């Protein structure tokens, strides 16, 4: 069990029934709720980490959630360096995890 | 306590001089107004170039420096050990391309002249260019490859030279600002006064980059070194796609220009951190470091002429620095004819990182009374081309 | 009639917009988000209406009134999804000859490509750029599943997403409580709230009913009513303790909690481990100063924008309000915003005595928060050699120390450039101030050799090189000549 969307039927704020949004994440279709950020859709679908760092290859995901830390960068429809927490998911978005190896060793 | 030499300024030129003098057995005191590498040396690209220099005295010095960097990089590594950050010396080579037919003609003529001065300047055709740089705009008109163009990470190089200088006995006082000269009863220079008290030395060397004119003035002389602002852009990290230093040929014209107005020309390269560095501008705005977005726009637009794929690269930072500009486009290296004991190592314009080592060797030999490997007279503050400017400003 | 540009549409910016409009100025309100309200009033998107959304928020009615008024007002142009990437203070002044500079904006989806560049030349600017969480580094804080409190809040309030099922909230400050409350209201089980600060007499006065702090001000909120029961019965609130390490391989699996002494040094032997699937850690807030610095504003020794009684900064025509002038919460932000907007439109603070009074009251509140919860100097004792200090460039504390020892540098600028710490894509937003403190702590007198600030970012937000290369569309300084916004019968902020 990890991050999850509160089912609207259980939500004390009594939201209306939401529409869904569907995106591709590393080739697999995942579903979210219309109006969610790409980060939110990914988190609710399971993975907490969805970027590999350049130096140590470690996993990273959402940290600050408000566009400050740039840890949640993903490639969206071919554009790199998109903050997943700041970009609203749009039906059909093709999202790919990002990893940039450092240039070869310097003499 | 008296010193053999006081060096004013702990940028790369001051650090290289401190190391060379200390290794030669001089007692050295470095006075730095701020902290090591706090000025131009940490606000530049770290270029060690021959490609942008036509036949002449600056090229001679650059060729000498280029030889020195290979051995010094190895010496520093051996001396400072693996725990010291790498100075990232790399002879990655420079590719100079012309984007117009006119530009192609002058680039090829320039390269031919350089070959006459023993510069390795290889004309490359379109296929060879794309082999060197697969993502280069295929529409470029001509290209010349300079295998000897190299680079260092300038802040680390400065720190490494200073660390080595200290290991060899040089002393460094940071946050120490020179406020004037000290003179004996006969009027001879015997040191400097600072905000932390007087310091004596038989020689005072001004190596304060674009601020050298101000230091000289405090000691009582003029020096026509002026700041020329340069702005650079840094992208976020990306896959390694640019493998050499790649310049638009109009960079060469901008380096040699006297124009006070804004000039921009493309210089694009990858860094060890995986970012791409995009330069650069030249503008005389005194020491005003305000951001000018129109300058950045022009720098960005010209870089896209070389590498169209960069259009979607994210720019995360800009930075700028002040090059020490001299009216006759040569550094002042040597003793001031107007004041015995006052020496200069200033005015390297955009080439100070590369030329620092050559400047230091040259001055060390002059201090020792040896004949330097390179004829020092063209760089002397007593040279004829500088004389009118010295009088003008005095 | 003057044109006032307001940067940031959180509480301070919205209040400024309304005040400037009431005084007859033509207003442009810019925010990088798609919605108004800022982080504080982060809410569900329009396509997800909820009958009782107000229970998640403090001052929801105030927000709705501000939003409704401004959206309906022809004299207020609202630019959302609009990021200011630079302020060029050297650029030619506005049509009236006295403007504070040229403001460069990129408009379109966050981090998109080919977005439109526009330039604004206002007569006056109100900076209301707010603050973000400050999280101190600790071992494992770079694991997925470690979030800032702000992340938990944004996802809970903006998406109804809980960052974990079993969550610990830790750090310092009254913000921890609304974070815990939001998590609980979104279906997480909050295993505990750990407040680093030991109890000053002030905080002791607040206990044993910390939920009364919800949401950071004294007025009762619906959320407190809803969630208070849960907090009381099920969420342990512990002071003088914090999360000092997070553990796991690819994600957080557990955290170590320990007691802290009064300087926040962990007390050996008090460690215990809690199994979690998420942890939210915030140690207060860092003001977003880059645009204020770009505009040339003087910054105080406490690292906020210096303002006078009229919320005027040191730069003529530039005003500041909200968290960038001091962390004080929503009520202070609303009062400052109103005064700033009014002054930017040519008014005098004496015209709004009610706002002046509120500002005075809530400034006192802000000072008490800082006294009770301010970061204490022992925190680096949590940091081990392996701890990542710069997340972007993955620089460990050990590497930072080793380089500092090698170069013997006392300079922040040099150490950034020799280690790459703070040079990554977040541009030191997350690590900058911690780096400054970690480096200074090793030096004589705990003082850096240079006076470089990690707050300066001439490019305030990344944009694409192609966007920067494109010509900007010059934009009218003001919307069509507006009539002043009428005062409503009752001020909704009161």
TrEMBL record, chain A:
SUPFAM superfamilies, A to Z: 2Fe-2S ferredoxin-like (SSF54292)
Stretch forming the signal peptide: none
Record InterPro entries: 2Fe-2S-bd_N, 2Fe-2S_ferredoxin-like_sf
GO MF terms held by the record: iron-sulfur cluster binding; oxidoreductase activity
Superkingdom in the source lineage: Bacteria
Keywords, alphabetical: Oxidoreductase
A matching Pfam family: Fer2_4
Name recorded for this polypeptide: 2Fe-2S iron-sulfur cluster binding domain-containing protein
Species in which this protein is naturally found: Mycetocola miduiensis
Automatic annotation (TrEMBL), chain B:
Superkingdom of origin organism: Bacteria
Record flagged with keyword Oxidoreductase: yes
Residue stretches making up the FAD dependent oxidoreductase domain: 4-366
Name this polypeptide is given: Glycine/D-amino acid oxidase
GO molecular function: oxidoreductase activity
GO CC, one annotated term: cytoplasm
Keywords: Oxidoreductase
Keyword Transmembrane helix carried by entry: no
Pfam families tied to this protein: DAO
From TrEMBL, chain C:
Regions of compositional bias (Pro residues) in chain numbering: 476-494
Short name of one Pfam family: Pyr_redox_2
Region listing for Disordered, in residue ranges: 468-494
Entry keyword set: Oxidoreductase, Pyruvate
Domain spans labelled FAD/NAD(P)-binding: 3-335
One GO MF term: oxidoreductase activity
InterPro entries for the chain: BFD-like_2Fe2S-bd_dom_sf (IPR041854), FAD/NAD-bd_sf (IPR036188), FAD/NAD-binding_dom (IPR023753), Metab_Enz_Cyan_OpOx_G3PDH (IPR051691), Opine_Oxase_asu/HCN_bsu (IPR017224)
Entry annotated with the keyword Iron-sulfur: no
Cited CDD domains: GlpA-like_Fer2_BFD-like
Name this polypeptide is given: Pyruvate/2-oxoglutarate dehydrogenase complex, dihydrolipoamide dehydrogenase (E3) component
Taxonomic source organism: Mycetocola miduiensis
């Amino acid at each position: 069990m990890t991050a999850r969307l509160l089912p609207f039927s259980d939500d004390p704020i009594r939201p209306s029934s939401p529409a869904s949004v569907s995106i591709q994440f590393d080739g697999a279709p995942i579903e979210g709720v219309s109006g969610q950020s790409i980060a939110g859709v990914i988190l609710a679908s399971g993975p907490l980490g969805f970027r590999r760092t350049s130096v140590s290859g470690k996993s990273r995901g959402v940290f600050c959630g408000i566009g400050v830390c740039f840890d949640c960068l993903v490639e969206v429809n071919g554009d790199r360096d998109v903050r997943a927490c700041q970009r609203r998911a749009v039906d059909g978005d093709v999202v790919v995890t990002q990893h940039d190896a450092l240039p070869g060793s310097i003499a | 306590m008296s010193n053999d030499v006081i060096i004013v300024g702990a940028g790369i030129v001051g650090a290289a001089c401190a190391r060379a003098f200390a290794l030669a057995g001089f007692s050295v005191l470095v006075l730095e107004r701020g902290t090591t590498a706090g000025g131009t040396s940490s606000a530049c690209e770290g270029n060690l170039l021959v490609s942008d220099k036509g036949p002449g005295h600056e090229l001679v010095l650059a060729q000498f420096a280029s030889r020195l960097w290979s051995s010094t990089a190895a010496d520093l590594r051996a001396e400072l050990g693996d725990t010291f950050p790498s100075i990232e010396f790399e002879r990655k080579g420079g590719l100079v391309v012309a984007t117009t037919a006119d530009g192609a003609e002058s680039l090829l003529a320039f390269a031919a002249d350089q070959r006459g001065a023993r510069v390795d300047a290889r004309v490359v055709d379109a296929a060879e260019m794309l082999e060197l740089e697969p993502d280069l705009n295929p529409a470029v008109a001509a290209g010349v490859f300079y295998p000897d163009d190299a680079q260092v990470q300038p802040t680390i190089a400065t720190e490494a030279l200073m660390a080595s200088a200290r290991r060899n006995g040089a002393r460094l006082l940071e946050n120490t600002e020179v406020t004037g000269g000290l003179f004996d009863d006969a009027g001879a220079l015997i040191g400097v006064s600072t905000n932390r008290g007087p310091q004596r030395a038989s020689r005072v060397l001004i190596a304060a980059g674009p601020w050298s004119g101000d230091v000289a003035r405090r000691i009582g002389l003029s020096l026509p070194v002026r700041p020329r602002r340069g702005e650079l852009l840094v992208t976020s990290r990306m896959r390694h796609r640019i493998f050499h230093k790649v310049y638009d040929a109009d960079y060469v014209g901008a380096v040699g220009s006297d124009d006070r107005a804004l000039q921009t020309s493309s210089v694009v390269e990858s860094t060890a951190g995986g970012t791409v560095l995009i330069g650069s501008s030249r503008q005389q705005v005194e020491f005003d470091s305000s951001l000018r977005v129109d300058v950045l726009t022009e720098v960005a637009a010209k870089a896209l002429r070389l590498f169209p794929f960069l259009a979607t690269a994210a720019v995360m930072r800009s930075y700028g620095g002040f090059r020490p500009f001299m009216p006759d486009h040569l550094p002042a290296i040597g003793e001031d004819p107007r004041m015995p004991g006052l020496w200069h190592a200033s005015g390297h314009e955009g080439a100070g990182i590369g030329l620092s080592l050559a400047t230091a060797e040259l001055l060390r030999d002059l201090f020792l009374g040896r004949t330097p490997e390179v004829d020092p007279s063209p760089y002397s503050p007593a040279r004829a081309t500088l004389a009118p400017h010295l009088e003008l400003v005095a | 009639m003057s044109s006032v540009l307001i940067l940031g549409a959180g509480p301070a910016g919205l209040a400024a917009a309304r005040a400037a409009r009431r005084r007859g100025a033509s207003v442009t309100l810019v925010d990088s988000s798609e919605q108004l309200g800022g982080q504080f009033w982060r809410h569900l998107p329009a396509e997800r209406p909820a009958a009782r959304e107000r229970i998640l928020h403090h001052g929801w009615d105030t927000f709705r009134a501000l939003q409704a008024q401004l959206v309906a007002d022809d004299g207020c142009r609202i630019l959302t999804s609009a990021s200011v990437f630079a302020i060029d203070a050297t650029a030619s002044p506005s049509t009236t000859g006295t403007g504070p500079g040229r403001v460069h904006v990129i408009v379109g989806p966050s981090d998109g490509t080919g977005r439109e560049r526009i330039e604004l030349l206002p007569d006056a600017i109100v900076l209301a750029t707010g603050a973000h969480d400050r999280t101190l580094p600790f071992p494992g804080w770079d694991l997925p599943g470690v979030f800032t409190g702000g992340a938990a809040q944004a996802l809970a309030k903006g998406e109804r997403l809980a960052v974990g099922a079993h969550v610990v909230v830790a750090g310092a400050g009254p913000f921890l409580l609304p974070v815990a409350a939001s998590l609980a209201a979104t279906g997480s089980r909050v295993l505990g709230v750990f407040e680093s600060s030991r109890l000053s007499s002030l905080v002791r006065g607040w206990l044993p009913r910390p939920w009364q702090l919800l949401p950071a001000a004294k007025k009762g909120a619906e959320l407190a009513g809803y969630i208070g029961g849960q907090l009381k019965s099920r969420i342990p609130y512990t002071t003088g303790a914090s999360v000092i390490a997070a553990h796991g391989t690819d994600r957080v699996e557990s955290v170590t909690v320990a007691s802290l002494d009064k300087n926040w040094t962990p007390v050996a032997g008090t460690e215990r481990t809690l199994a979690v699937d998420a942890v939210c850690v915030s140690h207060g807030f860092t003001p977003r100063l880059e645009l204020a610095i770009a505009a040339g504003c003087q910054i105080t020794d406490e690292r906020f924008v210096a303002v006078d009684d009229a919320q005027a900064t040191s730069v003529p025509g530039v005003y500041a309000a909200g968290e960038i002038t001091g962390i004080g919460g929503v009520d202070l932000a609303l009062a400052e915003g109103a005064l700033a907007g009014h002054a930017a439109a040519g008014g005098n603070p004496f015209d709004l005595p009610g706002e002046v009074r509120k500002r005075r009251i809530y400034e006192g509140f802000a000072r008490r928060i800082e006294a009770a919860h301010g970061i204490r100097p022992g925190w680096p004792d949590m940091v081990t050699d392996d701890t990542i200090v710069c997340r972007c460039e993955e620089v460990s504390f050990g590497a930072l120390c080793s380089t500092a020892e090698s170069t013997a540098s006392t300079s922040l600028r040099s150490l950034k450039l020799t280690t790459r710490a703070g040079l990554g894509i977040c541009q030191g937003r997350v690590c900058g101030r911690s780096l400054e403190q970690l480096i200074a702590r090793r030096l004589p007198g705990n003082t850096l050799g240079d006076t470089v600030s990690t707050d300066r970012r001439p490019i305030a937000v990344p944009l694409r090189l192609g966007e920067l290369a494109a010509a900007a569309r010059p934009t009218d300084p003001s919307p069509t000549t507006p009539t002043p916004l009428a005062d409503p019968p009752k001020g909704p902020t009161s």
